[in-house]
């Protein structure tokens, strides 16, 4: 019995010392980002680096790192990025945000690609009063009722309308079918906004002939597609992750479904074209930014720097990551402080900030009002079609 | 239910396509289990390795694709033997739970090693065009893979049957599977037979992985998890240890999944659960599987 | 003489528990939220590890379905403790089922309810399935866990489907997690000392012999399984109310694997082993995160590789299983 209690005491001692010893030695030096005595400001980044959304996360982080290189200091202190992988998993996202706040004591957070992951961290940043800026999550719920969450991109009600308009006006579609990923808030939300907008613009409540669904990670969509085929829509709207969507479109074409298939901003990943191959030729989707039509002088600067560093053309997610970082730094300058709450107030009052993706002004919900860009897959590349103003 | 004949035939074709894929993968699973009574949880991950090795072969070398396929399968087969030596051989005389745990550990090891080595972003499998060609018969579209996979499965079935019934090694395998102790007492080289079993089983898993890649050209380190479990279920349904049973089980699962979505679109989300529900029904009604023999346990 | 010894043992135990509670109190006051979270996780994993050990280690039933019971417990407790306003916000796609919309219980009854519902499911699942042998039982229980997950993903109006639940009240604190852990340890000790414990052990050693000795296999197996499920449900409830957000996707096989890891490393059938292993592994899981991210040793820093952490853990598991078959600590 004594042995048992000795072990228990040992365990508790082990626990305390290892937990205390766990923290980086730099933690001891920087007692908190709000300690103006330290010479480093930490900005946390939580993005999916593995899992189904890995491509989106990686591209975003590329943009953030580029921004950090371009502007690595503010208020005379060095800016350090703490990058944490949330594994495309909601619970991990919550954990990641917690760790950034509690362990690394960051002054602000950037993240995450995929609205579900951002929403998972929503309450945590709200309760800890640390501001978070999302680069590309488009679901309205990310910032709704959350004074501490912001985003530098447009939101899905707008995106859904853009695509619905495109379907109706450019493609002359009167009937549409929806294929959504029920495991993602993004897909479910965007589908709903498309449906609302499409019904309104066609004036026909029955213009949506069918809605079918799949789960992230599914690979076989032949049954759902065969069902949809039988309903004879003019166009299919299938906003979903790039991997699943590419497979879905390929299987649709194999089944002889020739109608246009439309999607949202998550399609803009090189894997979409690699996996989809010839099948995704002609796929049209909405997104935030295009290298072919730079909007501001910052865009040109960003595009050059990106090309120099990574040797390829920038995509929307890198550009948004870049902007999120720059917005935070701008806010820190305006607040003239490293206190998360003051930074938060400064972010909220961001007005006409010149970003790479356009002029960024955050509204009362913390959302940016931006124009959308429509792209089409042409000859194995993403080709810019047009810009749609809000 | 207003489904046209054409739609039904299309669903049937889709089901056969998926089912034949499951069938192919289940054969390897059932072989290993039949002889060693081991649920090789890592089978799905060997499947994944086969697909990835083929990917690197196709992308980075100029070897003709059919040769790449064969070579990758052989390499994966050898990796399977390595796995057996490292993770299962030391536990040959341990209680079954221990071996099972080692298998689960091996599976996680391979999955995470895959993430570390191959990276988290998916890789596009460069499918040779013959697999992608589509044939349309009376409004029903059939992709090349739908013909090729069952063909390969049948060829392999025939080869395996010949091997186990006509060759010495094959017969030794059957002897081991019938009665492990007696067979070992008869002077059969257990190590050799087990290695051969794993070689063939992993080879088959690799072929399954390659075919999976041609049909679903998105490779991810965790791609083997679901197919692995489903194919084990197929093997159990068909009667563990029985190769023909595994094939039948695979088809049942593939067709079943598709038909649920086809006839009960409201239950589309439950599609994955179908395999498990079917498994439990079989386990409760006829645990030895559809083609298995009833075995009594001697005390 | 014997009576005096027993009395001394009992009072010693109480003393030790008191000392432990004092240490807990001090830790609760001094540690920062991040470390407190880990401390809570340790306690929860003690409960979970012991619950799996009861089924797998003590009774020898190889069940791989633990994640499913945790899911039931987590969702039940979450739905019962969430305030109605929060529920409305969550269930925006499809409104929540009426009888759950306005309930708001306090933590203890919700937790117990979670355990109870899990136990009932455990009973229903166990009854038909427990007669299967090792491997088949493993796959059948795994199958049930997956079925539970798929069902939860689709029951939009009860569980909010794949979107999961956010804003679960964070009612778990060290007193709850470690309180439950201590209760679980005591429960298991009590069970194993009595006739039930002997029955469980004999079933594990040799089922047929046990049956020949007159032990009712079914009754004892079901009992072990049901109690294990009850505890798993409680563990799940504690986990949900610690994390604040749950979704069906977290209750998959990797979660069961984590607990299996704890049970095997601590030694199947050892209460002490599981407890210690739960604490050590939970801490190491966090401490080794640096393998996934970047390592900064001051003079060198190198990029971590995502996935490395679990590679290390799997190798560890296999090494223990292959080289030290009894686990890290000898069976008590």
Automatic annotation (TrEMBL), chain A:
It comes from the Bacteria. Keywords: Signal. Pfam families: Peripla_BP_6. The keyword Flavoprotein does not apply. The lineage of its organism: Bacteria, Bacillati, Bacillota, Tissierellia, Tissierellales. Residues 1-21 form the signal peptide. It comes from Acidilutibacter cellobiosedens. This is ABC transporter substrate-binding protein. InterPro entries: BCAA_transport, Leu-bd, Peripla_BP_I. Residues 41-378 form the Leucine-binding protein domain. SUPFAM superfamilies: Periplasmic binding protein-like I. Transmembrane segments: none annotated. Belongs to the leucine-binding protein family.
């Amino acid at each position: 019995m004594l042995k048992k209690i000795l072990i228990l005491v040992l365990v508790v001692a082990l626990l305390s010392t290892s937990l205390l010893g766990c923290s980086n030695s730099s933690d001891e030096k920087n007692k908190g980002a709000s300690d103006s005595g330290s010479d480093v400001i930490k900005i946390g980044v939580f993005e999916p680096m593995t899992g189904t959304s890995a491509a989106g996360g990686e591209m975003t982080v590329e943009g953030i790192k580029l921004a950090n290189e371009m502007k690595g200091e503010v208020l005379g202190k060095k800016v350090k990025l703490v990058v944490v992988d949330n594994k495309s998993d909601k619970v991990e996202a919550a954990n990641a945000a917690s760790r950034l706040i509690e362990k690394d004591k960051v002054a602000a957070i950037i993240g995450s690609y995929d609205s579900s992951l951002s929403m998972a961290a929503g309450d945590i940043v709200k309760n800890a009063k640390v501001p978070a800026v999302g680069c590309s999550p488009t679901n309205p719920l990310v910032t709704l009722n959350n004074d501490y969450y912001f985003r530098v991109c447009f939101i899905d009600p707008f995106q859904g309308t853009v695509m619905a308009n495109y379907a109706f006006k450019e493609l002359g579609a009167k009937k549409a079918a929806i294929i959504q990923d029920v495991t993602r808030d993004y897909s479910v939300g965007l589908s709903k906004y498309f449906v609302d907008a499409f019904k309104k613009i066609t004036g026909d409540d029955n213009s949506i002939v069918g809605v079918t669904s799949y789960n992230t990670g599914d690979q076989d969509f032949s049954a759902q597609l065969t069902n949809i085929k039988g309903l004879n829509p003019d166009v299919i709207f299938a906003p979903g992750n790039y991997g699943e969507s590419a497979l879905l479109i390929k299987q649709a074409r194999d089944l002889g479904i020739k109608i246009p298939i439309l999607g949202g901003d998550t399609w803009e990943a090189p894997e979409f074209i690699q996996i989809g191959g010839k099948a995704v030729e002609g796929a049209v989707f909405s997104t935030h930014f295009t290298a072919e039509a730079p909007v501001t002088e910052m865009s040109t600067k960003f595009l050059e720097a990106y090309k120099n560093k990574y040797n390829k053309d920038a995509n929307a997610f890198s550009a948004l990551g870049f902007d999120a970082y720059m917005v935070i730094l701008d806010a820190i300058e305006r607040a003239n402080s490293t206190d998360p709450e003051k930074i938060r107030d400064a972010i909220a009052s961001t007005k006409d900030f010149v970003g790479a993706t356009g002029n960024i002004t955050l509204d009362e919900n913390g959302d940016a009002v931006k124009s959308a860009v429509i792209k089409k897959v042409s000859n194995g590349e993403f080709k810019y079609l047009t810009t749609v103003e809000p | 239910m207003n489904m046209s004949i054409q739609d039904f035939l299309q669903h049937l074709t889709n089901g056969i396509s998926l089912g034949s894929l499951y069938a192919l993968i289940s054969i390897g699973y059932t072989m290993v289990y039949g002889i060693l009574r081991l649920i090789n949880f890592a089978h799905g991950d060997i499947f994944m390795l086969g697909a990835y090795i083929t990917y690197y072969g196709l992308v980075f070398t100029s070897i003709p694709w059919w040769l790449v396929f064969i070579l990758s399968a052989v390499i994966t087969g050898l990796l399977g033997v390595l796995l057996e030596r490292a993770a299962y051989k030391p536990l040959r005389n341990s209680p079954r739970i221990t071996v099972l745990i080692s298998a689960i550990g091996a599976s996680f090891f391979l999955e995470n090693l895959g993430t570390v080595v191959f990276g988290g972003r998916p890789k596009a499998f460069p499918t040779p065009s013959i697999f992608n060609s589509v044939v349309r018969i009376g409004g029903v579209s059939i992709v090349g893979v739908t013909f090729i996979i069952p063909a390969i499965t049948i060829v392999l079935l025939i080869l395996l049957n010949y091997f186990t019934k006509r060759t010495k090694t094959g017969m030794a395998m059957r002897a081991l599977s019938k009665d492990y102790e007696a067979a070992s007492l008869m002077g059969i080289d257990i190590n050799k037979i087990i290695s051969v079993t794993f070689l063939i089983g992993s080879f088959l898993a690799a072929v399954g992985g390659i075919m999976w890649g041609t049909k679903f050209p998105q490779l991810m380190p965790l791609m083997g998890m679901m197919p692995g479990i489903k194919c084990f279920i197929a093997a159990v349904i068909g009667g563990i240890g029985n190769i023909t049973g595994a094939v039948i089980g695979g088809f049942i699962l593939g067709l079943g999944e598709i038909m649920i979505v086809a006839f009960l679109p409201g239950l589309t989300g439950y599609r994955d659960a179908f395999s498990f529900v079917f498994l439990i029904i079989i386990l409760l009604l006829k645990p030895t599987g559809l083609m298995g023999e009833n075995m009594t346990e001697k005390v | 003489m014997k009576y005096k010894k027993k009395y001394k043992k009992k009072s010693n135990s109480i003393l030790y528990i008191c000392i432990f509670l004092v240490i807990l109190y001090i830790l609760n006051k001094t540690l920062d939220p991040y470390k407190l979270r880990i401390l809570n996780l340790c306690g929860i994993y003690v409960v979970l590890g012991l619950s799996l050990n009861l089924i797998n280690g003590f009774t020898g039933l190889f069940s791989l379905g633990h994640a499913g019971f945790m899911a039931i417990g987590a969702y039940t407790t979450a739905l019962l403790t969430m305030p109605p306003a929060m529920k409305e916000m969550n269930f925006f796609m499809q409104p929540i089922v009426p009888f759950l919309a306005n309930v708001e219980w306090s933590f203890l009854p919700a937790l117990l309810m979670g355990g109870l519902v899990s136990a009932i499911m455990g009973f229903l699942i166990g009854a038909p399935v427990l007669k299967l042998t090792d491997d088949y039982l493993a796959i059948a229980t795994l199958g049930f866990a997956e079925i539970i997950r798929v069902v939860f993903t689709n029951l939009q109006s009860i569980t909010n489907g794949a979107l999961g639940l956010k804003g679960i009240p964070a009612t778990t604190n060290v007193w709850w997690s470690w309180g439950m852990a201590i209760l679980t340890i005591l429960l298991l000790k009590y069970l194993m000392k009595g006739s039930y414990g002997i029955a469980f052990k004999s079933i594990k050693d040799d089922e047929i012999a046990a049956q020949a000795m007159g032990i009712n296999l079914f009754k004892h197996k079901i009992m072990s399984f049901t109690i294990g499920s009850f505890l798993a449900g409680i563990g799940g409830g504690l986990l949900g109310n610690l994390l604040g957000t749950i979704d069906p996707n977290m209750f998959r096989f990797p979660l069961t694997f984590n607990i299996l890891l704890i049970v095997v490393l601590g030694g199947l059938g050892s209460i002490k082993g599981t407890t210690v292993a739960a604490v050590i592994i939970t801490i190491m899981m966090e401490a080794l995160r640096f393998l996934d991210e970047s390592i900064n040793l001051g003079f060198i820093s190198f990029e971590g590789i995502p996935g490395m952490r679990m590679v290390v853990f799997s190798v560890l598991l296999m090494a223990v299983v292959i080289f030290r078959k009894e686990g890290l600590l000898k069976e008590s």
